[in-house]
Amino acid sequence: MNLYARKERWKWLLLVAAVVILASTLWFTNSMVQKVAAEERKNVKLWADAVHRKATLVQYTEAFFKQLQNEERKRVELLAHAYNALINSSLDEELTFYLEIINKNTNIPVVLTDPGRRIINSKNVSFDTTSTLYLSDSLLEEFSVYPPIRVNLDRNVYRLLYYKESRLFTELREVLNDLNRSFLDEVVTNSASVPVIITDSLDVLIASGNIDSLVPADTARIKSLIAHMKDENDPIIIQLGDQGATYIYYLSSGLLNQLRYYPAVQFGIIGLFLLVAYVLFSSARKSEQDQVWVGMSKETAHQLGTPLSSMIAWLELMKMDGIEHAAIEELGKDVKRLETISQRFSKIGSVPKLEPVNITTLIYQSIDYLRKRTSRKVVYQINIPENKEVIIPLNPELFEWVVENLVRNAVDAMGGAGRLTIDLSETNHHISIDFTDTGKGIPRSKFKTIFQPGYTSKKRGWGLGLTLVRRIVRSYHNGKIFVKASAPDKGTTFRITLRKP
Question: Which of 348, 355, 305, 311 is CA-nearest to residue 333?
Fold first, then answer.
């Protein structure tokens, strides 16, 4: 009893330790998952904000350069006015002001041509004005980005002033565009390391990142991807300028998914390892127990053999001397019983021979023998007609041992006074034998423990009786034995189930 009490305590302690380790691991992993998920969500928001800022900066830059273009055109118009004034001026007219306007243009490339595009004058240009007589081909295309300004000389005579953006304007635009690409693109690329999509309230795609470049062009794939993202993470709702509510959908990173499934994989591997280890150790322990059982049984049968032979010889001598006494007959029954017990022990470890036996007769014979050797305060009630024939493949010696152990346990549980009832029921394929006593009962938590080797509720005893019973029923007769019902101080019912032939 103490052995199994300690074993149970150790089981509970190990279970509590396992639960603590499991809970700690799950808590730690879940904490890491939440931190990574929060960081990813934060990065997705940063990505969306960077996209918004980039769009805003692009809009601002376009407006800024549009304003610069207007300012440059005003300057070119002023130059056209200056050229017009110079061409149409008289000799005595003061031209210093107009010349100063033309000379102060040091950035805007301008070309003055006649209607046939023959170059008359130029300033701030990169081509050779001595060898280039006409504004044509690629040079014309270069100066035709903006429409030329007409300089009227007379009613029917005019000149055309072509121009392109200034070097300062070009350099400023290149610098801003380079900063825009190098800074914002880096933020957008590095902020969101997961597939992410921004849509409006109607799920119209606004921007995307870290997805296949072909996907945005495929409406069906975008809808499918958004649905998948919705299932995995709640969308982030933000306001992007005057676009109203926008939705950010994203997928978790591979690292986050690995962290989520890591505990399950870890516990699965550990559980498989423990299961294999348990099976191996249980098999080894069972094999060792079997060897101990067989060795002990063979040795017991051997030790019983010598005194049995002497007792048989003495009984024969007493009969030859004509000694008659009732005790001699009972002594002969006990000697025969000892022979049966010796045979039982000798058969442990070997495959017993099963033969058709009327189990009703076997039960009545076993109870008749035990009734005379137990307290008279024990009432035996067999609810089976004595003439009922139920043929089952059994080994009589071993199954009688089963009945004897169950009866003795019941008598001990009742303290030598009570009622033992034996019932038999059958179906088309099985029979069930119930042994019901009126003893002290068995706690439900011990229904399986009582069949383990060494378990006993008695102050004296080895705790092997029910273990041997279960072994005989299960291993040698392919049956089952279990506690059908039990209640404190009301009794216990053991049920044996056997297959019909």
Answer: 311
Residue 290 falls inside a structural domain: no
User: Residue length, the chain?
Assistant: 501
Which residue range forms the structural domain that includes residue 86? 2-168
CA atoms of 35 and 41, how far apart (whole Å): 10
Question: pLDDT per position in the chain (501 positions), as tens?
Answer: 455 566 667 778 877 887 788 788 778 877 887 887 777 777 777 777 776 676 677 677 778 778 887 887 888 788 778 777 777 766 555 667 767 777 777 788 888 888 888 888 888 888 887 777 888 888 888 888 888 888 887 777 888 888 888 877 777 777 777 766 665 455 555 555 677 777 777 777 777 777 776 566 677 788 888 888 888 888 877 765 555 677 878 777 666 777 777 777 777 787 787 788 777 777 776 666 666 666 666 666 656 666 767 777 777 777 776 777 767 777 777 777 777 777 666 666 666 788 999 999 999 999 998 888 888 899 999 999 999 999 999 988 889 889 988 998 899 889 889 999 999 999 989 999 999 999 999 888 888 888 877 666 665 555 567 888 888 899 889 999 999 999 888 899 999 999 988
Contact 63, 135 (CB under 8 A): no
The pTM assigned to this predicted structure is: 0.44
Question: Within a 13 Å sphere around the CA of 61, how many CA atoms are in the beta-carbon half?
Answer: 18
Q: Given 252, 268, 288, which residue is the final one in a domain?
A: 252
- The number of domains in the chain is 3
Query: Do residue 48 and residue 93 come from a single domain?
Result: yes
Token readout for 265 is 């994989």
